[in-house]
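Q: I'm building a small set of examples for a reading group on sequence design. Run inverse folding on the following structure and report the sequence directly after it, with nothing in between.
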């Protein structure tokens, strides 16, 4: 059962406490035993259908919502006719009517449930509870219409953000492929042509063939240098750019972000890239997993170390396992003789902290010194 459905079911169970009054009235001894048994069985069936509806929070098939509402209304009519202390069940029907359908149909369903409740009250002579129950039914139904609208809108926004992220990745892949084609297309064509020419000249003009081979080597080295520069440009983000991107990304995800940049002096270039990767990985985890409302990024430069800390107030990482992103970040930090800490915060949320020395020590043996 999903997180949203669990809360919906908890909400439904909590409000069932109001059915204690009609149940107590049935058990007071004023009614015939057969009537008590039948009424309590009807009430149990009502509660079962009501809870099953909320366990299937906002089903895609509107037929289920319609069937649940019809069954609940029918049971409410029967229970109220037998004993008007069950008239409050129409309020539960109004809640289901407001949550079961899209907004326009939900309004009509709420109106129908309210009309049925009022009609039963009039015919049963229960005018004493008609005024307040009708108002509560309308307010409850309209409230559920609004809640459903917010839930559906939130899901649509999440889907739109995910689609936007997928499109951004696809666009970046196309740009990378285009840049590689521009870099390597010409160089590889020259290498192929000169290799073929050297092969043809080998038997008749060895000196010229050797010159062509030297050209092939030169062009290949130049292509290798250009590819390395291109890959370094892609893999080496800037800390300043990454902080601004983090601010925009978190804001787009609806997360309030506070940035405390206490480092007045620029960070050395190798450390700048490592810290930029740390910011990117931390922000990615906050957006994907934390369900946070607020996040905080702190950057401070001391006499010997530079410190980065990213905090959020979300749920942390349930069943936490270190993925490739954090594993790669740890390798980069360890390659700089730095220290990395991540995990749950005592007060809730998640914390990632990176500390790097400002000196440039030699990398440890066996630890890759990534950029």
């Amino acid at each position: 059962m999903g997180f949203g459905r669990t809360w919906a079911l908890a909400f439904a169970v909590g409000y069932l406490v109001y059915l204690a009054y009609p149940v107590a009235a049935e058990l007071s001894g004023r009614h015939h035993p057969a009537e008590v048994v039948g009424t309590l069985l009807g009430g149990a069936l009502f509660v079962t259908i009501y809870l099953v509806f909320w366990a299937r929070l906002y089903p895609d098939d509107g037929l289920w919502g319609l069937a649940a509402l019809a069954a609940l209304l029918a049971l409410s009519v029967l229970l109220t006719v037998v004993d008007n202390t069950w008239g409050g069940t129409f309020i539960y029907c109004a809640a289901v009517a407001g949550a079961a359908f899209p907004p326009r149909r939900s309004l009509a369903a709420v109106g129908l449930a309210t009309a049925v409740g009022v009609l039963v009250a009039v015919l049963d002579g229960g005018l004493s509870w008609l005024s307040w129950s009708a108002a509560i039914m309308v307010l409850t139904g309209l409230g559920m219409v609004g809640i459903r609208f917010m839930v559906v809108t939130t899901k649509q926004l999440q889907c739109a953000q995910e689609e936007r992220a997928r499109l951004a990745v696809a666009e970046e892949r196309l740009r990378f492929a285009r840049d590689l084609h521009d870099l390597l297309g010409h160089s590889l064509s020259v290498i192929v042509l000169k290799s073929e020419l050297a092969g043809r000249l080998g038997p008749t003009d060895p000196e010229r063939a050797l010159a062509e081979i030297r050209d092939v080597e030169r062009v290949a080295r130049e292509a290798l240098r250009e590819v390395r520069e291109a890959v370094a440009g892609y893999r080496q983000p800037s800390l300043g750019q990454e902080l601004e991107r983090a601010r925009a990304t978190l804001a787009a995800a609806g997360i309030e972000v506070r940035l405390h940049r206490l480092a007045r002096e620029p960070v050395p270039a190798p450390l700048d890239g490592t810290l930029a990767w740390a910011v990117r990985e931390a922000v990615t985890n906050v957006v994907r997993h934390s369900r946070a409302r607020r996040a905080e990024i702190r950057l401070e430069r001391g006499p010997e170390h530079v410190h980065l800390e990213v905090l959020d107030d979300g749920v942390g990482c349930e069943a936490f396992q270190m993925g490739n992103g954090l594993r790669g970040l740890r390798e980069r930090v360890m390659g700089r003789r730095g220290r990395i800490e991540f995990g749950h915060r005592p007060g809730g949320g998640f914390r990632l902290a990176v500390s790097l020395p400002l000196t440039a020590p030699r990398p440890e043996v066996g630890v890759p010194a990534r950029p």
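Residues 70 and 187 are 73 Å apart (CA to CA).
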